[in-house]
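Technical annex B. To support the medicinal chemistry partners, we prepared a structural model of the target in complex with 5-oxo-L-norvaline, based solely on the information shown next.
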Amino acid sequence: MIKVQEYRPQSFIDFTKEENVTAYQDALKKVRAELVGKHYPMVINGERVDTAEKLTSLNPCDTSEVVGTTAKATIEDAERALQGAWAAFESWKKWDMDARARVLLKAAAILKRRRLEACALMSIEVGKNYAEADVEVAEAIDFLEYYARSAMKYSGFGSSETTWFEGEENGLMSIPLGVGVSISPWNFPCAIFIGMAAAPIVVGNCVIVKPAEDAGLIAGFMVDIMLEAGLPAGVLQFLPGVGREIGEYLTTHAKTRFITFTGSRAVGLHINEVAAKVQPGQKWIKRVIMELGGKDGMIVDETADLDVAVTAAVQGAFGFNGQKCSAMSRLIVVDSVYDDVVNAFVERAGALKVGTGEENANVTAVVNQMSFDKIKGYLEIAPDEGKVLLGGAATGEANGKQGYYVQPTIVGDVKRESRLAQEEIFGPVVSVIRARDWQDALDIANSTEYGLTGGVCSASRERLEQARAEFEVGNLYFNRKITGAIVGVQPFGGYNMSGTDSKAGGPDYLANFMQLKTVTERW
Ligand SMILES: NC(=O)c1ccc[n+]([C@@H]2O[C@H](COP(=O)([O-])OP(=O)(O)OC[C@H]3O[C@@H](n4cnc5c(N)ncnc54)[C@H](O)[C@@H]3O)[C@@H](O)[C@H]2O)c1
Ligand SMILES: N[C@@H](CCC=O)C(=O)O
């Protein structure tokens, strides 16, 4: 058994301290000097391989800046990566669990040393401010540390998990699935990207990682760390490319054993459908693990502490511009305190500074043109679906910089069945919904097809207990923000249309990537 201290999540950097701000700014300079403008080729079978065409990553906060480029994998590359991964699987599956876990622990150690570089790169590539970037890199380290330790419980012949039967030895063996595809989103391009790769890898699978098109550089940075930590050739195949091209090819392929996907509901459901169709030569039912979108609501009732509720609302709604699956996009307030809560929320949100990630603004630009246009579309219908109380414009500029800037927006008295109340917007836009009373608020909270995060701000024990039982979400928070799950502390994942509730960072997450064999020997 590997010798490590008990898992403890990373603490976050305190950016109220001047020395930490200075260190971050130094990291930004280093990243600008060493990583901006860099090109990341694919990594297939341990070799760096390039393509004629490239994918370009733009700075969303200053779209005149190209942050860097990656290769753009073709179908032939995807095929080669898949075959190479199956060849690597023959030896990787035989490695001791301890030895595989050590690779993750070493990667965590390297990332700890390069923590601020990873943060700074994300400030430039996807516009995260300092705290948002830091929380994400801390989560990436936590995933590596946590999954390394979790793997231990699947090591060896687990006869203790079965009931004793006289005259026989019985037990369960956990064995890896084979080769899978990990398809990740741009909004947590470091933590989710590496968590979805490290988990299957540590228990003996080989993985083709397909990062999001908008965040290829941080993905390349993380792959370098995994290789430096000692992953053998072919275990992690780095395949930046276009989702509907190579993603589609790999998810439909007969030789893909499992798919772990985090992204939108639309793409997730499409993958679920194509993966279910058995291809010629396919000899398994593909395992599909899905983490999808949300339309997350937080209820504030008349017993709530107003300051706690408003702080939770501002943090949950506007952290990383609402570009989190967990973001509070619906604030559901009971009628008797509606005006007080909403006025305070509008006032606090109105003080948020809009600017670049590098300037450490509270709200930065949204990720790309498609996202900007989509949010703009919702802002256009907002006056018909409620009252715009704050913001309401997609300005496309902040402090003289052209970028995908959208004002923090609050729309009041949104109709509960409207598009603003039902569809994931994925930007700094909050719909406030007026509820008659507590029960009406809970009904509204449960009235979407999603079920990812939710929250209640209330001092009523009875109501909190009712919510515990009846609020239909995978992650439920009381009297705090509804974002920011910590690995091992709040296992994360939703149900209903929000996903397969596989609970990343939870005690059973690795079981998603293994199959069990029961072995009986008669003595
Ligand atoms: N539940 C969670 O844990 C969680 C976490 C983060 C983000 N999300 C969700 O992700 C979404 C935002 O991320 P996004 O915009 O990158 O999502 P997206 O669905 O547009 O893309 C996700 C990934 O899928 C790939 N892809 C696109 N089409 C594909 C296809 N046909 N076949 C295979 N792959 C394909 C993309 O290239 C990308 O890598 C939001 O809906 C958000 O709620 C969920
Ligand atoms: N795990 C993150 C959300 C990831 C989705 O975007 C949170 O808990 O806020």
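Notes passed to the chemistry partners:
Residues 187-188, 324-326, 483-485, 492 surround 5-oxo-L-norvaline (ligand 2) (CB under 6 Å).
The chain has a mean pLDDT of 97.
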